[in-house]
Design goal:
Elements lengths: L16 H8 L6 E5 L2 E4 H17 L7 E5 L6 H11 L2 E4 L9 H8 L3 E4 L1 H11 L5 E4 L12 H5 L16 E6 L9 E5 L2 H14 L6 E4 L6 H14 L2 E4 L6 H11 L3 E4 L1 H8 L13 E4 L6 H11 L3 E6 L6 E4 L12 E2 L4 E5 L5 E2 L3 E8 L6 E2 L3 H7 E2 L2 E10 L5 E6 L4 E3 L2 E3 L1 H8 L5 E11 L2 E10 L6 H13 L10 E4 L13 H5 L1
Parallel strand pairs: 1-10, 3-4, 3-5, 5-6, 9-10, 9-11, 11-12, 12-13, 26-27
Antiparallel strand pairs: 1-2, 7-8, 8-19, 13-14, 14-15, 16-17, 16-18, 18-21, 20-21, 21-22, 23-24, 25-26
Length: about 525
């Protein structure tokens, strides 16, 4: 592995200094964030961050204490997140769409001292965590009958300016929870310098983000992908960002894009596909100079349809919660539809065999990556940490192929691969072939045992429900045989209304196998 680009992060650094840099650059009056018709300037975000950080301290959060954030994207999310870090607390944002009873897991796993949530969820979450030391407070519009204290009230008397806690770049800054695509979510611990590292690598070299940009991400701020797209990247460049509240349906995304007029648009393959099949998208992305996709591999067919319909190129890439953002990507002027691209400057990639040894040249195996945005550890999972972090390398469990030109092609999770007749089958490759058929909206492929032999089975969501399922299965079997090796062709098909997914859109193949 050869280092491509060296990135220097100051030894003494606090992630909230992204805000200080904008004030020092004279951007105090510039719009930092817009949401639901309300905007805040960089100066206003800075003042609120200082007040919220102090308020969390008044409520009992000492340096190092975790603050669970259960909020949809909202105008105050960035100030709360950065304010907690500024005061030395450790923000832990999680998906606000879980059932309230599920937050007990996150509270107990993280040991959160404070939960910050909306008024609609506050009492229900309080019930699930009552009897412990955790304090539940609200942020945002009040609701009649809600008994939880409001963070705004605690912040009202706090100073609008406060220095950040003197931290080192490797000190704990925040956690994110893994998506749960392979089981229960795990707490991923990140350091103070990790956000800045992703800015100096992906944001600088791939996005080429600038002060005049406006970012809009359909993936929310509680997710690593969304956190970079709509917080750290624009704040690092002095750009502006548009937040979307509520579920990112095609109609909601089109409306937000027309109102916010972004220049950089970020989404995921499932939603790109849904938007292509929805009406009302014409002209919504006028002014966008680049689109980005991550979280799942982007089918080449979707890439081509998006370009035909909107005239825009999508930069697909691979990233992870553990590495904080995208570390392998296509880039402007160098795009290969269906591929994940090349290493992002600042990250080193290799393909490892089953023994964990790096392979040279064209190769297929597990993708391993090195870069200074890597997680410090999985919280409460030392065995998993030891398995995935070895000698400064992160073993992704993603199976990839590197071609002769140094591009990387996703073949599936190592956990999802299976053998048919002694030969490895990549679900991703089979799915990419099937989705080219006009009757297939989306699909997922797993290996199933039949009389002691493993065969490929495809779960298919049809573009138009109904019709002769058996005839369509025969048609798909013949269609895929023209694109795949014989052993890769699915022998069994199941037509379903939808696929099991995490709340961030990743397919949970383990549920299909079960």
């Amino acid at each position: 592995m050869t280092t491509v680009t060296s990135v220097r992060i100051p030894e003494r650094y606090n992630a909230s200094q992204l805000l200080d840099a904008n004030l020092e650059a004279g951007r105090a009056e510039k719009v930092a964030v817009s949401c639901g018709g309300t905007s805040l300037s960089y100066g206003e975000v800075f003042a609120r961050a200082c007040r919220y950080g102090a308020a969390l301290g008044e409520l009992g959060a000492a340096p190092g204490d975790r603050v669970l954030i259960v909020l949809d994207d909202c105008i105050d999310f960035p100030a709360l997140f950065l304010g907690a870090i500024r005061a030395g607390a450790v923000p832990v944002p999680v998906n606000p769409l879980y059932d309230p009873s599920q937050y007990r897991y996150f509270v107990e796993d993280s040991g959160a001292r404070i939960v910050v949530t909306g008024a609609a969820l506050a009492d229900a979450i309080s019930t699930t965590v009552e009897g412990g030391r955790t304090c539940v407070v609200t942020l945002g519009a009040p609701e009649s009958g809600c008994a939880a204290p409001r963070l705004e009230d605690a912040a009202a008397g706090q100073p609008a300016e406060a220095p950040p806690l003197d931290t080192r770049r490797d000190d704990m800054a925040f956690w994110l929870y893994s998506s749960g695509s392979t089981g229960s979510p795990r707490g991923v611990v990140h350091g103070q310098g990790d956000l800045l590292y992703t800015c100096e690598t992906y944001a600088r070299h791939i996005l080429e983000i600038r002060e005049s940009d406006v970012t809009f991400s359909t993936t929310k701020l509680f997710h690593a992908y969304g956190l970079g797209n709509n917080l750290s990247f624009p704040y690092w460049a002095g750009a502006s960002t548009v937040l979307l509240q509520g579920r990112p349906t095609p109609d909601a995304v089109f409306a937000a894009a027309r109102e916010g007029r972004p220049t950089l648009f970020f989404s995921v393959p499932t939603l790109y596909n849904a938007m292509l099949n929805a009406e009302g998208g014409d002209g919504a992305f006028n002014g966008v100079r680049a689109c980005v996709s991550a979280a799942e591999p982007l089918p080449a067919r979707v890439w081509h349809r998006w370009r035909e319909q909107h005239g825009l190129v999508i930069l697909d890439g691979i990233g992870s919660t553990e590495m904080l953002h995208i570390y392998c990507s296509n880039r402007i002027g160098d795009v290969t539809p269906g591929a994940s691209g090349r290493p992002v400057p600042g990250y080193d990639l290799a393909i490892a065999d089953e023994s964990g040894d790096a392979l040279e040249g064209e190769a297929t195996g597990e993708l391993i990556v090195r870069g200074d945005s890597a997680l410090d550890r999985y919280w409460n999972h030392p065995d998993r940490t030891a398995e995935c972090l070895r000698d400064g390398l992160f073993y992704t469990r993603d199976r990839y192929r590197r071609d002769a030109d140094g591009r990387y092609w996703y073949e599936g999770r190592a956990d999802d691969m299976f053998k048919v007749s002694g030969l490895w089958v990549s679900p991703a490759e089979v799915e990419a072939a099937l989705i080219e058929h006009p009757a297939v909206f989306e699909c997922a492929v797993v290996g199933v045992a039949v009389e002691g032999f493993v065969k490929a089975k495809a779960f298919v969501v049809r573009r138009e429900p109904g019709g002769d399922a058996e005839a369509l299965a025969d048609e798909l079997r013949s269609f895929s045989a023209t694109k795949l090796h014989r052993y890769e062709v699915p022998q069994f098909f199941a037509f379903v209304d939808d696929l099991p997914k995490t709340l961030t859109g990743k397919i949970q193949r383990f549920k299909l196998r079960d």
